[in-house]
Amino acid sequence: MMEALASAGPATFDRAFLRDPYPVYRGLREKGAVLWRDDVFLGAWLLTRHADVELALRDPRFSSRRTAGWVKRIPGLDAGYAARDLDAFQRLFGRAMVFLDAPEHPRLRQAMAAGFHPSLVRAFRPEVERLTDELLAPLAGPASFDFIDAVARPLPSRVMSMLLGIARGDEAQFIAWSDDLAAFIGALQPSAEQLRAAQCSLLGMVRYFDALLPARRRSPGADLIGRLVQAEAAGAARADGELVAQCALLLFAGRETARNLLGNGLYTLLSHPAQ
Questions:
Q1: DSSP bridge pairs for 34
Q2: Is the overall model pTM greater than 0.85, yes or no?
Q3: 34-37/44-47 β-pairing
Q4: Residue pLDDT, tens place only, 186-204
Q5: Nearest CA to 115 among 250, 261, 244?
């Protein structure tokens, strides 16, 4: 049964929701399995139960391609700005693997999987431990510190930069770009300002990789970009911006998910001292 809900207003997804979202989730599930919300992404259906979410993700009748289409409809953008400046952003946004259906999605997923082979990941373990120790060392003295800012935010960026083969000195710029993308993608109702910032940051990432990739095509290397370049040469990834979109996706998505995992993991551990 589908139950259409009017917008509940910002109070439903306010700071209290961020501190403890589970009462809201429980209330949504009690209202129905499929709900309409006006206050999410300019209007969206919410699936409130795990089994339905899994079914939708696996059912080819549901498409990921529409995900990028709403960026031009964000309130606060005049029509001239949307038509003139957002085409490249929407095109790149829509080429990322997570926004593609079959056959493009499995093709790119297979091309990228080689860079995450267990043996390759294990080989990076000593370097990941060294980066972690480097971040933790200054924290031994202070009585308190912000774990997200001190560890969970920079560590995934450094690890993803290492996996991709990005110069250490460029990490701060990528953190800033990723913050803008995270604020945009994570907002239930992104503002025009968040969209503009995300657009500038994604295009900045693209310019960086556009400058980097020619040299990497001549000498791929053993890192993740090297493997993607080899996949491109073998025809598994196209040279029309698709490769650049995946590099930007990896740097943002790999960093954002790991940051949240580290923060939630530590919070859960501290909430259960016996563990």
A1: 2, 47
A2: no
A3: antiparallel
A4: 888 888 888 889 889 988 8
A5: 250
